[in-house]
Predict the structure of DNA polymerase-3 subunit epsilon.
Amino acid sequence: MNAWIEAPVAAFDTETTGVDVVADRIVTASIVTAVPGTVPISTQEWLIDPGVPIPAGAAAIHGVTTEYAQANGMDAAQGIDAVAGTLAGGIAAGVPIVVFNAAYDLPLLAAEIDRYNLPSIQERTGGISPLVIDPLVLDRAVDRYRRGKRTLETLCEVYDVDVPDALHNSTTDSAMTLLVLAAMFKRHRAALDMPLQQLQDFQRTAHAAWAKNFNQWRERQGYSGQGPSEEWLP
């Protein structure tokens, strides 16, 4: 039986107005479909006018200002509907989705869908749940004790993937995520070569263990505020 790494997947990424999954808005979204490590089969990108000011700090990261989004972006409800419809179409067809830090991007999209009273991903797929592959969760699991950051840029360096100048563009980040995933699988095949459904359970368990340990560390350091949930995806 062929490994899941040898079949097409759809990488999904967003650039946003901030880091709050409930309050912040999507500015760009991209879906890059490819067999990980190969030339993309298709690339789709949406530029959305979020309907709220884009903070200067966020614009400095992804390059989209309020003025540019207003002049060139889609209506927010129409844009979110298009993103959700495209993503749901792939899920319904059985295509796994690859999301770096899925615990951020997927709840963010769900909040946007709710904001505009649009059909949920589950409603669009007829109840089919997505098969999600999160390279961040996988990296924490297969190389637990490696020190340092685990950003996409850092993982590009760890897995010998050339870092482009245009990182923090949702399309570029989606493509880089697939290259990192391919390199990670090659290096850690013994740990990651399992049926996709089993991989879902593996990621849930791995994320819960990481979150528990991280929150214990936060407590020892005296940090206040809520840490990450042990639940990977709702």
Summary: The chain has one domain: 4-195. The chain has a mean pLDDT of 95.
